[in-house]
Write a structure and sequence with these properties.
The protein is an alpha/beta fold.
């Protein structure tokens, strides 16, 4: 066993743990922290040492490496426990486990009885289970002797040291220099990878090549594109069987090109790697800001992640990294990844905390999640029937026992209750794992994409198809194997048989209802063939979906490709058709009956619509063309006002009337309001008994508005604010009323001859402003003092007007009869 840089620090680490019961280790890549620290901690207590790894591969490799270094058989003193695989025994004192497995143990044993040390390896990755396990372990440490260790190569140690009250140990690594090149391209990713692999194999002599890609689909396409003669191309991702993962990481007789997800980004060294090709992408769980639905999104890696990936090439000797993006792109990336607790769905976390009697809002997290995310998770769990007023229900207790997201746990629990538990376990497994088919059948039609996958799986399992036969059938053998393992585990936890008791046709309705219980907030309405409208957004149904019919659908898998700068779309990858009756059966308390009366532009009349709505989605709607009552006249009035009163009424005359009323009110007459609200009420009166805008034409809105005024005041309106007034030589001269100006009239000067004083209104209180017009209809004088005009100005003006208009009468005495 060769010496590693961390060996010189082990005594100090153990000493600080004895003193403070916690330590933070920041060890550079290659220092040996994963394999050397855990074994020396076995003497700190009488219990086990549990090491948390972010991935199954890391847990298995680390356990195997430690067992080899100690000269022990794996599964004796050193072992591992991951999903679907357990290599431990009664003698195992050092256990490498995945974070999910550890959290499930914490849910059953919050005090971690029998455990002396918990080591959090690669803590910088900050998965949701990481944060939860860290907080729960810290809580347990306050109630019993327990040692906690946090380890990482890129961790910001200070906040964690404060949280754990721990000493910090910084350890140099054993990393050789790595040269970096950039090769941005516009081609499809698999073509870029193929070209980069050929270049790297040619330019980097010896050693294996590690290629980082975002997901299994990209890996498959890259494998088809890469065909080097001098190297083996192998895949490495979490859905592969253990044998395939082992082949990828173990040294072989020829050079290898390992196409991997971020599973190879950290933890134990993959022997033989001297070159890295980094696509700079990763698949991450998140929540869509447009719909609130959980999604899987391909995003750019952070700078820290890119640096970590490049470092894999320098573990054994000087290496090389080729990034398939520009240096400018690298410098513009986030420095670190955002922790999952700050960006993803928290339903599973909240359910576990509630099951432990904790209040998620007050729980002492290392870094608290956004309150809005906790509230959203609480609402979902309430909708699923798992909690009631933050207390666990019987359904919730059954859900906690299942190794599933709460949505799928609820689906499985409901399926068991409806007598279809075996297929419920299979549907949950199919929803939890990746797509079973390599390419979907675009001609297939059915009620549910999940049930279509179920049919494929059951047919293949019944026929006992081998790997090559699965591929020939268009099925992914790795996905098939993962689904079968998950189905078996869920069935065990659910305590049901694996084999169904009846045909799928007999169980289909119960399964569809079970799917609905797991996704009650994902109901959408089909507007066009492939457009699904949710209460708060819209999405496109993937063209490969079998759900081609039905108005109402449940989205069970969504991919969000939208970007902040625009572009992309929300795609429903998997859907299930539902009937309105199913919603009414399962969620009667959430169905709201709404009645609305409104003007329909297409029908050209007021109609009444009655609708049943669930979460903002219409389940059923009826139309009535002969509604009655005040709501009808109100809707007609609002529609007429929106269209424009000038299209139906003389709005100039209407405005004159309103100004007369306001003038009369200002001079002592009590009438009432004629503002816009009063006008709309008058329009409603006019619309009474009518349903179309056409019926309003020719009616008097002035009369309707006047009818709402005080009767006594209205009777005197013409007296106080007359519409017109008589002049000596003109029977009717209209009065103009304006806002913030005195009323005025205009007429030819001759019409005022014989009139000593100008006319007055408002009971003689207000003189009218007189506009005296020349024969060309232009005002030669504006005044309220007619007598003064005759005396002072008329003689001069008369001479000018008589010269310009000799045919008109211009008497010397304008008051003469």
């Amino acid at each position: 066993m060769g010496a590693l840089p961390i060996d010189a620090h082990l005594d100090a680490i153990v000493a600080s743990l004895r003193e403070r019961r916690a330590a933070v280790i920041v060890a550079e890549p290659g220092a040996g922290k994963t394999t050397r620290v855990p074994p020396v901690l076995r003497d700190l207590g009488n219990g086990d040492v549990v090491v948390l790894e972010p991935r199954r591969l890391a847990a298995r490799m680390a356990a195997r490496r430690v067992a080899d270094e100690l000269g022990e058989t794996l599964g004796q003193g050193v072992g591992y426990t991951v999903r679907f695989d357990n290599k431990t025994s009664a003698q195992t004192r050092l256990r490498f486990v995945t974070e999910g497995v550890f959290v499930r143990r914490l849910s059953e044993d919050p005090l971690l009885e029998g455990t002396s040390v918990v080591v959090f390896d690669e803590l910088h990755e900050r998965h949701l289970h990481t944060d939860l396990a860290l907080a729960l372990a810290r809580r347990a440490q306050g109630q019993r002797p327990l040692f906690l260790v946090g380890m990482s190569a890129t961790l910001d140690a200070a906040p964690l040291a404060t949280f754990l009250d721990a000493a910090v140990h910084e350890v140099p690594g054993r990393v050789h220099p790595v040269s970096i090149d950039y090769a941005p391209g516009q081609e499809k990713l698999e073509r870029q990878v193929s070209a980069a692999v050929r270049r790297t194999l040619r330019e980097v002599p010896g050693g294996d090549v590690l290629v980082f890609l975002p997901g299994a689909a990209e890996i498959r396409r890259a494998m088809d594109a890469c065909r080097p003669n001098d190297a083996d191309v192998l895949a490495l991702h979490g859905d592969l069987p253990m044998e395939a993962q082992d082949r990828a990481v173990q040294t072989g007789p020829r050079r290898k090109v390992i196409l991997s997800t971020n599973i190879a980004e950290s933890s134990v060294t993959i022997e033989g790697v001297t070159a890295v090709i980094d696509a700079g992408l990763v698949r991450r769980a998140g929540v869509s800001p447009w719909t609130g639905l959980p999604t899987l999104v391909t995003v750019r890696t952070s700078q820290a992640s890119a640096i970590q990936r490049a470092g894999r090439a320098g573990r054994l000797r000087p290496g090389h990294c080729l990034r398939l993006y520009s240096e400018h792109d690298f410098r513009g990336r986030d420095a670190h990844d955002l922790p999952e607790i700050a960006r993803t769905d928290l339903a599973e976390l909240v359910l576990l905390l509630v099951s432990l009697g904790e209040d998620p809002a007050d729980f002492p997290f290392f870094e608290a999640p956004p309150p809005s995310a906790l509230e959203a998770a609480t609402r979902l769990l309430s909708h699923l029937g798992a909690i009631n007023r933050r207390a666990l229900t019987d359904v919730g207790r059954a859900m906690v026992r299942l190794p599933l997201h709460p949505r799928l746990a609820r689906l499985a629990v409901e399926a068991k209750a409806r007598g279809v538990g075996p297929r419920g376990a299979l549907v949950a497994a199919l929803a939890a794992e990746r797509e079973l088919r390599r390419e979907r059948d675009t001609d297939r039609v059915g009620s549910s994409d999940l049930l279509a996958r179920l049919e494929d799986f059951e047919a293949a399992e019944a026929e006992g198809l081998r790997t090559s036969e699965l591929r020939a059938r268009g099925l992914d053998p790795n996905a098939f194997r993962a689904v079968r393992q998950a189905r078996n585990q869920i069935a065990r936890s659910l305590r049901v048989e694996r084999a169904p008791a009846a045909s799928l046709e007999d169980e289909e309705e119960a399964l569809l209802l079970s799917i609905l219980t797991g996704f009650p907030d994902r109901l959408g309405q089909r507007r066009r063939k492939n457009q699904i409208v949710f209460a708060e957004g819209a999405a496109i149904l993937d063209e490969s979906s079998v759900v081609r019919e039905g108005e109402l659908v449940i989205a069970t898998s969504v991919m969000d490709s939208r970007r902040k700068g625009g572009g992309g779309r929300l795609i429903v990858r998997s859907a299930t058709s539902v009937e309105a009756e199913a919603i009414l059966e399962l969620f009667p308390d959430r169905v709201v009956e709404e009645r609305s009366v409104a003007y329909d532009d297409e029908l050209g009349q007021v109609v009444e619509r009655a609708a049943l709505r669930y979460e903002g989605v219409t389940l059923d709607e009826s139309l009535r063309r002969d509604p009655e009552g005040p709501e009808v006249s109100k809707a007609l009035a609002e529609a007429a006002a929106k269209r424009g009163l000038e299209k139906l009424f003389d709005v100039d005359a209407l405005e004159t009337f309103r100004r007369r009323v306001r003038f009369a009110e200002a001079h002592g007459l009590t009438l009432g309001s004629v503002d816009d609200a009063a006008l709309l009420q008058a329009l409603e009166d006019l619309a009474m008994g009518r349903r179309t805008i056409a019926e309003l034409k020719g009616l008097s809105l002035i009369d309707a508005l006047r009818g709402r005024l005080d009767p006594k005041g209205s009777a005197r309106l013409d007296e106080v604010a007359p519409l017109a007034i008589a002049l000596p030589r003109r029977k009717r001269c209209p009065i103009t009323y304006e806002e913030d100006r005195d009323p005025w009239i205009q007429s030819r000067m001759q019409d005022f001859f014989g009139l000593r004083e100008g006319p007055r209104i408002a009971g003689g209180k207000v003189p009218l402003v007189l506009h005296l017009l020349a024969p060309n209809r232009r005002a030669v004088q504006v005044t309220t003092d007619l007598a003064g005009f005759w005396e002072r100005h008329y003689p001069r003006i008369r001479k000018e007007l008589k010269r310009r208009y000799p045919r008109h009468a211009w008497p010397e005495d304008p008051l003469a009869p």
